[in-house]
Design brief:
By secondary structure, the protein is of the alpha+beta class. The protein is built from four helices and seven strands, in the order ααββββαβββα. It has a three-stranded mixed sheet, with helices on both faces.
Length: about 180
């Protein structure tokens, strides 16, 4: 018997019958452009998905809450410019080593207290200018220096396809959120 094969009890996902469905970012963008969906629907669906699966996979270091969303799906605490970019309105997360205005950054470590950022870093600025809906920060190994997302100060980020394994690389939390169906990228 293959002991590395995941059983249904080891698999965690957040797929639901909601605005995100099983669509990728391209399909969601096309639905937004056709007004079949709106950014608020996508952001709320992603938040519900994150809340439902994160206790099992431990992939999120910071998550905005529902009342931080405005009617257009942007976070009230984070201004998002209107954008004609193809991915405008698509929800996503940033790694917890990226400075994003008004969100804490801890670099996946307990060595420094989380710092609330006063401005976007270069990568976050570009993401924001593309109109992405940043819903929080994903987990990562301490300072991103390890091959698996297993920080000392909190539970390891689990691979949603088999929670007996951790999620690898410095983008372990991001990878787990995509694999679990929380966000398309």
């Amino acid at each position: 018997m293959d002991t590395n094969k995941a059983t249904d009890s080891q698999y965690r996902h957040a797929f639901m019958d909601d605005a995100l469905s099983t669509d990728d970012a391209v399909a969601l963008s096309e639905k937004l452009k056709k007004n079949e969906l709106n950014p608020e629907m996508l952001a709320r669906a992603a938040l519900l998905r994150a809340q439902s699966v994160n206790p099992s996979i431990c992939a999120i270091n910071y998550l905005i809450d529902q009342d931080q969303l405005s009617a257009d799906g942007t976070a009230k605490l984070m201004p998002h410019p209107q954008s004609e970019h193809f991915f405008h309105g698509i929800p996503s997360f940033l790694k917890d080593n990226v400075a994003y205005k008004d969100m804490p950054t801890s670099f996946g470590s307990n060595a420094f207290p989380p710092k609330i950022e006063s401005k976007h870093g270069p990568y976050a600025k570009q993401f924001s200018e593309m109109g992405m809906r940043i819903l929080g920060k994903s987990s990562l190994p301490e300072f991103g220096f390890n091959a698996s997302t297993e920080p000392v100060h909190k539970e390891a980020t689990k691979n949603p396809w088999n929670i007996n394994f951790s999620s690898g690389a410095s983008s372990g939390g991001s990878a787990a959120l995509v694999a679990a169906g929380v966000v398309p990228f």
